[in-house]
Design brief:
This protein has 273 residues and is α+β, with helices and mostly antiparallel strands. The chain has helices spanning 2-28, 139-143, 188-196, 213-216, 241-252, 258-263; strands at residues 38-41, 48-53, 67-82, 85-98, 112-114, 119-121, 152-157, 159-168, 182-183, 201-211, 264-272. β5 and β6 form a beta hairpin.
Length: 273
């Protein structure tokens, strides 16, 4: 039993370490331009995030001349069928973009050159004018969260929960009334990212819940919903999601299905921007 418990813990640690490291790497290599935004979908339950990053991606229709150094990268949790049972996994979207519309099956360029002499037109957007993805160039990616897109690949198994929180930098523009660093509320995030991208964000807090594979095999479909982990409460800062999740687990652990009580583990990383 000791050996089995240690292996279960090690499996979760490995999944979480790789997933959080990959997210941190994509964020660290994000495109830092004033006309480049990002999108964080604060949804009931699992969140989604998409951004432009100078990292490798999938590009079956691009040759070396049209392939840019920029990829559209995103993360979501999706329900999948595995080994005859239903589980959830963390998936990464990674699509390398062309510099222009030429040579691509869908017009998804990162930068369009226009005029003579050619000058760059402001790059395409994720958030759109309303911050919710409407009007953005990549609307399809944002709205079809459950699509079987070839650009999605699993990076961590049995991840049932993904929570994204954004910590805004202190506002010192008015010295007499400085505003301390704080978590943005769900309502504030779309407007902030559509207007300023990640320029005013000090750090991103990524929190995930992982269930080891042995216990995941014992669960009925939808059983993880019994855990009902809460969304970010921005007004509770400096508490992070992990604090609330641990507190909830301690109060509900005796009533949870045994595989969840024995196998669920929470992980959190604060990624400095």
């Amino acid at each position: 039993r000791l050996t089995s418990s240690a292996k279960q813990s090690s499996d979760c640690d490995s999944e979480a370490r790789y997933a959080l490291s990959q997210i941190a790497s994509d964020i660290a290599h994000r495109v830092r331009r004033p006309d480049v935004d990002g999108f964080v979908g604060k949804l009931p339950g699992n969140d989604v995030i998409y951004l432009f990053s100078e990292t490798s991606g999938y590009a079956p229709n691009l040759d070396s001349k049209t392939r840019s150094t920029v990829s559209l990268v995103g993360y979501r949790v999706k329900e999948v069928q595995s080994g005859g049972h239903t589980t959830k996994e963390l998936q990464r979207y990674a699509r390398t973009l062309p510099w222009t519309t030429q040579g691509e099956d869908v017009a998804m360029p990162f930068v369009v050159l226009a005029g003579s002499p050619a000058i760059p037109v402001p790059s395409t957007t994720l958030a759109g004018t309303d911050g919710q993805g409407a009007g953005g160039t990549f609307t399809k990616v944002l709205t079809q969260a459950t699509s079987e897109d070839v650009y999605y690949q699993p990076i961590a198994q049995n991840v049932s929960r993904l929570e994204i929180s954004l910590l805004r930098k202190p506002d010192l523009t008015t010295p007499a009334k400085p505003v301390a660093a704080r978590l943005l509320t769900d309502a504030e995030i779309p407007a902030e990212l559509s207007k300023n991208g990640f320029n005013n964000i000090a750090s991103m807090i990524v929190t995930i819940a992982v269930l080891d594979s042995q216990n995941a095999m014992k669960l009925a479909p939808g059983a993880m919903d019994a855990l009902n982990l809460p969304d970010t409460v921005a007004t509770g800062f400096p508490k992070y999601p992990l604090d609330d999740w641990n507190a909830l687990l301690s109060t509900k652990i005796s009533t949870l299905p045994r595989p969840i009580a024995n196998g669920v583990r929470f992980y959190q990383r604060v990624i400095s921007l």
